[in-house]
């Protein structure tokens, strides 16, 4: 029976070698100092919402047909800038990136941290004004597969599952951005934190691991690091949450909801 877990690592490794990129060596330059860091270098296409419920063979053939260029970026490099035209589909297959937006007032608004495997700005690829709405910066060494928009569109027209996945992913992204706007509109930092923690957990699963450092989390909420630390300590003292490094455990969900 065919393996349904997605793109084989051997197939991706071969593809990268054909483009003169040794995946293992490049991944070796990732951070070594962060004990909470996850290794995203071995992810398969099954982790990408666009390729959900597709077989390994479909994944591999899709790459063989469409990948003509592979791009690599070092930690801290800017991959695209806000306002750049979206001339192709950029599929992140290794590493993670940070997205941020410059507001009209000149402030930096932290949007999200995205991990492989995922395309950049899928909702904007085929828009009438198809430009990147944010800067994309490498959090660690990254590898992108560059695929033409025309080829991607043709693949979706010939594959109902891929088209369904594309529409679902864009709907989910719209919902996420709506939630982000609602959270930004909240006045109290504790209310913002409560909303954030509720989105990351459920009544059945009340623990999650933060992707961001305390400094990055403060930037995400648009506050000073000291203000964030104070609010987190207050919520711990009130018996609402428990912090252990980047691990967050919800102790009293009802209190969190009432924040």
UniProtKB/TrEMBL annotation:
<dbReference type="InterPro" id="IPR018490">
    <property type="entry name" value="cNMP-bd_dom_sf"/>
</dbReference>
<feature type="domain" description="Cyclic nucleotide-binding">
    <location>
        <begin position="50"/>
        <end position="98"/>
    </location>
</feature>
<dbReference type="InterPro" id="IPR036390">
    <property type="entry name" value="WH_DNA-bd_sf"/>
</dbReference>
<dbReference type="GO" id="GO:0003677">
    <property type="term" value="F:DNA binding"/>
</dbReference>
<feature type="domain" description="HTH crp-type">
    <location>
        <begin position="187"/>
        <end position="254"/>
    </location>
</feature>
<dbReference type="Pfam" id="PF13545">
    <property type="entry name" value="HTH_Crp_2"/>
</dbReference>
<keyword id="KW-0805">Transcription regulation</keyword>
<keyword id="KW-0238">DNA-binding</keyword>
<dbReference type="InterPro" id="IPR012318">
    <property type="entry name" value="HTH_CRP"/>
</dbReference>
<dbReference type="GO" id="GO:0003700">
    <property type="term" value="F:DNA-binding transcription factor activity"/>
</dbReference>
<dbReference type="InterPro" id="IPR050397">
    <property type="entry name" value="Env_Response_Regulators"/>
</dbReference>
<dbReference type="GO" id="GO:0005829">
    <property type="term" value="C:cytosol"/>
</dbReference>
<dbReference type="InterPro" id="IPR000595">
    <property type="entry name" value="cNMP-bd_dom"/>
</dbReference>
<keyword id="KW-0804">Transcription</keyword>
<protein>
    <submittedName>
        <fullName>cAMP-binding protein</fullName>
    </submittedName>
</protein>
<dbReference type="Pfam" id="PF00027">
    <property type="entry name" value="cNMP_binding"/>
</dbReference>
<dbReference type="InterPro" id="IPR014710">
    <property type="entry name" value="RmlC-like_jellyroll"/>
</dbReference>
